[in-house]
Specification:
five-stranded mixed β-sheet; about 180 residues
Length: about 180
């Protein structure tokens, strides 16, 4: 459930499934944007807002993004489903939050900070060191899901692809 090459994602998910099957431990799936949001808990600015927007650069002015709301227990719920879009389209979709205090996180937030700041007057950006995904933030996210009984066996883990592979896009173009 990470962003990366399609083959890499399938290999990673298959490895996790094998470990879960062999050890009979439960599996918890965390997408990259949620894991990144939990990294925002380490930011000096987290107390200014309960909204975090994770943005990962997908190259060529495209981004992966999602919006999360933090509760009093420092856990997150998704309020804007993860998506892959052009940065301009992503910002248009998030405009309804333009007057909200939002903590932006991720290499995409860093890359498009100027553009985001023009639309979101109360935008705050994490310190550079928090823009990268960490195992600690994924661990926090997984622990939250585990506490909420949001886990299962190896069959409950499936990759989350936010866009079609190049081969799928090419095939659709031929039709």
């Amino acid at each position: 459930m990470v962003l990366g090459s399609f083959t890499g994602v399938r290999i990673g998910v298959s490895t996790v499934k094998a470990f879960c099957d062999i050890t009979s431990i439960p599996a918890v799936g965390i997408n990259s944007l949620e894991g990144l949001a939990y990294n925002g808990l380490n930011s000096n600015y987290i107390n200014k807002t309960n909204l975090i927007c994770s943005i990962i650069d997908a190259k060529n002015d495209n981004v992966y993004f999602g919006m999360f709301e933090k509760d009093n227990n420092n856990t997150f719920s998704c309020i804007f489903e993860p998506s892959a879009q052009n940065i301009d389209d992503a910002i248009k979709q998030l405009k309804k939050y333009h007057s909200s205090h939002i903590l932006f996180i991720g290499d995409g937030a860093e890359k498009y900070q100027y553009l985001i700041s023009q639309i979101f007057s109360k935008a705050t950006f994490v310190e550079d060191k928090h823009n990268s995904q960490t195992s600690t933030s994924f661990g926090k996210a997984a622990f939250h899901h585990y506490q909420m009984l949001d886990y299962g066996d190896s069959n409950s883990i499936i990759p989350m692809y936010l866009k079609k592979s190049q081969a799928e896009r090419a095939l659709e173009g031929e039709k």
